Amino acid sequence: AGANITFSGEGIVEVGGDFLIGSGRTITNNLTGGMTIGDEMIFESTSSNAAFINNGSLTVNTRILFNARNISFQNNGTVSSTLNGLVVNDNADDGNMFINAHGSTFNVSTVNANNADFTLNNSGTINQTGNFSNISAGSSCTNLDGSTWNFSGGGTNARLFCNNGNNTFNYNATAAQAIL
Q1: pTM over 0.90
Q2: Which of residues 60 and 163 earns the better pLDDT score?
């Protein structure tokens, strides 16, 4: 079993390179000053059943990479990953979930599930500037009651569900978009 780690206080944590998360660990960001990762946040291939809980501000400069199964990422604050967004490593990395909680904000470029079964549940606000790609039939991106999804990207077969109560989906791109 892995160790659970909580970052708390008024300071800022800056990681110059990759931030690697191993198996069975729960990492919690409670920093009021925020956390910045200079390159990638990587749930390593040995990190199944790990969790990251963000209660503050988190900036990932390159991408959030799910390279294992059954990873839970819960955002209760603000997460920004705007260069290469959110990526599932390959189609064997099933069961991963990103939860954007009520009152939170997720700023992301691309969402690439690489044909794995992936869940993205939004109860807050998502600002997506890039594409959906490689979204399998076992995946879902759900805009829940009271949420807002601002989308200006592209891609196909996003498997986006907006039929949960009163929610808002704003499409701000220039061309037609196929959304299942």
Answers
A1: yes
A2: 60
